[in-house]
Amino acid sequence: MDRRGSGRPGAGPVNGTRQEIAEARRLVVKVGSSALTTAGSGLDVARLDALVDAIADRARRGAQIVLVSSGAIGAGLAPLELGKRPRDLATQQAAASVGQLALAHAYAESFGRYALTVGQVLLTSDDVVRRSHYRNAQRTFSRLLALGAVPVVNENDTVATQEIRFGDNDRLAALVAHLIGADALVLLSDVDGLYDGDPRAGATRRIAEVHSESDVDGISVGMSSSGLGTGGMVSKLAAARTAAGAGIPVLLAAAANAADALGTAEVGTAFTPADTRLSARRFWLGYATDATGKLRLDEGAVQAILRRRSLLSAGITGLDGDFQAGDVVDLVDPADLPVARGVVAFDAAELPALIGRSSHELPVEQRREVVHADDLVPLRR
Question: pTM, whole model, 2 decimals?
Answer without folding.
Answer: 0.79
